[in-house]
Amino acid sequence: MTTNTQTTHSHWSSRFAFILAATGSAVGLGNIWKFPYITGENGGGAFVVVYLACVLLIGIPIMIAETMLGRRGQRNPIETMEMLTEEAQADKNWHYLGWMGVIAGVLILSYYSVIAGWASAYVLKAFTGNFFDADATAIQTLFENFVASPMQLIFWHSLFMSATMWIVARGVNNGLEKSVRFLIPSLFVLLILLVGYAMTTDSYQRGLDFMFNLDFSKLTRTSVLTAMGHAFFTLSLGMGAIMVYGAYLPKNVSIAKTAYLVAAADTVVALLAGVAIFPLVFEHGLHPASGAGLIFQTLPIAFGNMTGGWFIGILFFVLLVFAALSSSISLIEPAVAWLVENKNFSREKACVWTGLGTWFLGLGTVFSFNIWKDVLFFERTIFQLLDYITSNLMLPIGGFCIAVFAGWIMKREHTESELEMPCKPSYTLWRALIRYVAPASIFLVFLHVIGVL
Predict the structure, then answer these.
(1) Phi, psi angle pair for 377, to nearest 5°
(2) Nearest of 117, 130, 141 to residue 310 by alpha carbon
């Protein structure tokens, strides 16, 4: 184990601050941008049920485990796994789990930043009245022209990454914590307002039917993997974010209770986003499986045709950017924390180097929508490949390893002392889920996808 590390001394100021931060990590573009379009691509209601089952049976137990690992280690994910591996007297190769999480976070942020840049650009488009009285065709053309311009995408990608680096450079309390205290509650309010508007449309019931009517014949092997992968993506599992946030969690805070609250808030936002967006999709003749650009081709139509839409449109995309920032800072924080604690970088220097590297990787996603859109790897663009590898492979594999380590490698007395569940049946249930249900479910899904089952 490396000895030239410094432990993480910063802590969240309260349990509420951690809940907001972890919710901010979970609630972002994953819920409002990604969840609606992958639901549309995978048949609607049946996919939602599988996703919710993944959150309940796999996501929450692993979130508890990952937070527990972080708080016990009190370091960045890489150093935490080294320390816990030594403590458990386990095979030293377990420390690569920390590396995989940090790498996954950087890869996700590389394309996440580009999509967040789209939201940033749409703040300006809303402000300048680009959505006013626009129909579906005009909005679609606006979006297609925008993503076809690499220079525009690079500009907004650069702006968003700069904002992320600035917040993270300010530290845990002055940067991460302050950035989510106002932003996350505000996003909830705006989503509820959008649901209220969706209820006034003629297609509201059709949107609900699409979201909640069950037709399991529409599910494919890939759909099940996508649902599980998104449960990991949206809860920020397996990417080091929850582990490093757990390192900042005070000892007197219940890990299990906070995990339940974060998962509940995250799921509510995802469902609200779907309920708000799908009626607008059907109302304006769009297809629910419109892909990554779905939210940028539906909500602007509503904003351009609703009373007060100019103001609501600006506010929504501003808050979407802020929600994206609350996630992006959690994606880059594990790598920054490792450089600070292990390589003696100043926090500012660590942010610059990590941010520039992530920005450079993001150019592959930028070009996936224009000059490299016909460059395919395994029938996927660079953006689609990164999304698939991280969400559908790295995060579930990371979650599987976290479950095995917490359930089988760590000593029982260590997990009991960290979790401090007041009710023994609660701990027994978690232990059963983390030892058997979660890893077995992930393994079976993978066997299903590759055609063994």
Answers:
(1) -125, 120
(2) 130
> Which position has the token pair 């700069």?
162
Q: What is the DSSP string of 12-64?
A: -SSHHHHHHHHHHHHSSHIIIIIHHHHHHHTTSHHHHHHHHHHIIIIIHHHHH
Which tokens sit at 256? 């299990």
For 203-231, b/e burial (b = at least 16 CB within 10 A) is bbeebbebbeeeeeeebeeebbbbbbbbb
| 76 token code pair | 């960045």
CB atoms within 10 A of CB 372: 17
Q: Of 1.20.1740, 2.40.10, 2.60.40, 2.120.10, which CATH number belongs to 15-449?
A: 1.20.1740
Integer Cα distance of 330 and 222 in angstroms = 28
| Measured distance CA(256)–CA(67) in Å, rounded | 9
Residue 43, sorted as left (phi over 0), alpha (psi -120 to 50) or beta, turns out to be left
What is the pLDDT tens value at each position of the chain, 453 positions in all?
443 444 444 666 667 777 777 777 777 767 777 788 888 888 888 898 999 999 999 999 999 999 999 999 988 899 999 999 999 999 999 989 999 999 999 999 999 999 999 999 999 999 999 998 888 889 989 999 999 999 999 999 999 999 999 988 876 556 556 666 777 777 788 888 888 888 988 999 998 988 888 888 878 878 888 888 888 878 888 888 889 888 888 888 889 988 898 889 888 888 888 888 888 888 877 777 766 677 788 788 878 877 778 888 888 888 788 778 878 888 898 999 899 988 889 989 999 999 999 999 999 999 999 999 999 998 999 999 999 899 878 888 898 999 999 999 999 999 998 898 767 888 999 999 999 999 998 888 777 666 665
pTM for this prediction: 0.86
- The residue among 225, 263, 245 whose CA lies nearest residue 67 is 245
Helix (DSSP H) and strand (DSSP E) numbers for the chain: 23, 0
Q: Are 197 and 269 in contact (CB under 8 A)?
A: no
Please state the domain extents for the chain: 15-449
Q: How far is the C-alpha of 200 from the C-alpha of 305, rounded, in Å?
A: 13
As a whole number of angstroms, the distance between CA 122 and CA 267 comes to 25
| Spatial distance between the Cα atoms of 3 and 83, rounded to a whole number of angstroms | 10
